[in-house]
Write a structure and sequence with these properties.
Layout lengths: L6 E4 L5 E2 L15 E4 L39 H7 L8 E6 L5 H14 L4 E5 L4 H10 L7 E5 L3 H11 L3 E5 L16 H18 L2 E7 L11 H5 L2 E6 L6 E9 L7 E7 L2 E4 L3 H6 L9 E8 L2 E13 L7 E4 L3 H15 L6 E7 L11 H13 L7 E3 L2 E2 L5 E2 L4 H10 L4 E5 L11 E5 L2 H9 L3
Parallel strand pairs: 4-8, 4-9, 5-6, 5-7, 7-8, 13-17, 15-16, 17-20, 20-21
Antiparallel strand pairs: 1-2, 1-3, 9-10, 10-11, 11-12, 13-14, 14-16, 18-19
The protein binds thymidine-5'-diphosphate and magnesium ion.
Magnesium ion binds next to helix 2.
Length: 455
């Protein structure tokens, strides 16, 4: 019988090879390949089939379960993104670009949770305690009962946490942590994975909640393997454009609440302040209606959010015209240009197209399709949309318009902010309310004809 050969498996992409190497040929990650013995051999060489395991107790799905107890910190934007507050024993990863404000936000959250009665420990591997105290003074948080430490040795941190048993421990950042039983440098894939595993296990074992900061690399990847995202209960992304003061906290995974929920903050000299009415903020710099500018009535998680889309279309000096997008999906833009071209006969060949979501916001809803098309047409025809108009709707490849969810919510928000007209797809549940004129369009061609008088 052939001897089972040892398999070497990349811990990042799961590709298997027969030989160890320093770099995975499939995904290009370094130091991710480890040996995994086939199960039939087992780590001790015994087969699994011979000895019996212990029978685990099975329970009913219908057994009543109380919702998890939660602690709200009082920063509403933060609590909502967590799903209504912090759940004991939960592990939360806060990821974002360096310098975006993760440490600032978590220090503010630490103070808020401490003031709400939790025992909070803040451990930094990046900044000295004196530096953190200075920041706390600047943020007016110096009186909050938060315990500080500067440490990177994971073993010491776990012992400290085990002795103090905080309700919440903040680890800034997971990339600086160092487990002495893992033979690689801090920040490497194995170190990050080991540290995240130890901390998550600690949270599950003791009931403490852990919040870890994770830096994102230039390519937009969480430095370290995606596997950290699988380990934790909640993954929050803290995003924003450098030049803008708005910051958006987005939940992309949450075992204890809805995902796609966002919290909006503004970076000020005194730290991050909550923005309770983000639509007003994203539209605040809007002047007179201009060609190429369209207001999209969007929804992020449970809240409606109006954002301005801006397009610029100009003759291209290049043989390959430019397609440049900020805050929206590039391939979705290509699709909309193709639909405009082949279903409505409006060519964009030989034209450079730029699309921008104002305020550093990122839109991912297909419901923005119609607003994008409107902005592109408005820029191309050099004609502004009627003032006080919002637009939303999904465009299908056939050129027809499909109704989108939460139309009622979108219209209400638009009305609240002083808009009086809406352009939306036919069908769907939205009903007209007083003071809001609805133009319902069956397809893109009708839209082009009625709004721009062209075809
Ligand atoms: P920081 O929280 O250190 O970012 P991260 O932990 O994500 O790397 O914040 C970095 C930036 O925030 C820094 O460039 C300065 C700015 N900032 C303010 O504008 N106002 C403030 O009150 C604070 C504390 C920071
Ligand atoms: Mg930091």
């Amino acid at each position: 019988m052939a001897k089972a050969t040892a398999r070497f498996v990349c811990q990042s992409c799961a590709a298997a090879t027969t030989k160890w190497s320093g770099r995975c040929e499939t995904c290009g990650e370094w130091n991710t390949i480890t040996e995994e013995k086939p199960l039939s051999q087992g780590p001790s060489g015994k087969t699994l089939g011979k000895s019996r395991g212990r029978a685990v107790a099975l329970t009913d799905l219908s057994a009543k379960e109380a919702p998890p107890p939660r602690t709200a910190c009082g920063m509403d934007e933060f609590d909502r993104v967590l799903g209504g507050g912090l759940v004991p024993s939960s592990a939360v990863l806060m990821a974002g670009d360096p310098g975006i404000g993760k440490s600032t936000l978590l220090l503010q959250a630490a103070a808020a949770f401490a003031n709400a009665g939790l025992k909070v420990v803040y451990i930094s591997g990046e900044e000295a305690s004196a530096q953190i105290r200075l920041r706390a003074q600047r943020l007016n948080l110096a009186e909050a009962p938060v315990k500080l430490a500067t440490e990177t040795n994971l073993r010491d941190i776990l012992t400290t946490l085990d002795e103090t048993r905080p309700d919440l421990a903040i680890i800034d950042s997971i990339q600086t942590m160092w487990a002495d039983n893992v033979d690689s440098t801090p920040g490497s894939v194995s170190q990050v994975r080991a540290a995240a595993h130890e901390l998550t296990t600690f949270a599950k074992r003791t009931g403490s909640s852990i919040m870890m900061v994770g830096h994102v690399t230039k390519e937009g990847q969480l430095a370290g393997p995606r596997v950290v995202e699988h380990m934790v209960d909640t993954v929050l992304y803290f995003e924003g454009e450098r030049g803008h003061q708005f910051r958006i906290l987005r939940s992309v995974k949450n075992r204890f609440g809805p995902t796609d929920e966002i919290g909006v903050f503004e970076m000020t000299g005194g730290g991050l302040s909550e923005v309770a009415n983000p639509s007003a903020l994203f539209l605040s710099e809007r002047g007179q209606p201009a060609p190429g500018s369209v207001v999209f009535a969007g929804v992020e998680g449970t809240r409606p959010l109006l954002v301005e889309l801006q397009a610029l279309v100009s003759p291209s000096p290049h043989s390959q015209p430019r397609r440049s997008v900020v805050g929206w999906d590039g391939s979705r833009l290509a699709m909309i240009l193709a639909v405009l071209e082949s279903r409505c006969g409006i060519p964009f060949a030989g034209l450079d197209v730029y699309l921008n979501v104002a305020g550093g916001m990122r839109v991912s809803e297909p419901a923005a399709d119609l607003a994008v098309a409107a902005a592109l047409l408005s820029a191309r025809e050099d004609a502004a949309l009627p003032p006080d108009t919002v637009v939303f709707g999904e465009i299908s490849l056939s050129g027809s318009l499909r109704p989108v969810g939460q139309s009622e919510n979108r219209l209400k928000e638009a009305q609240k902010l002083g808009f009086s007209k809406a352009i939306l797809p036919q069908g769907g549940k939205a009903t007209a309310s007083d003071g809001m004129a609805l133009s319902r369009m069956p397809d893109l061609t009708t839209f082009v004809g009625e709004v721009f008088g062209a075809g």
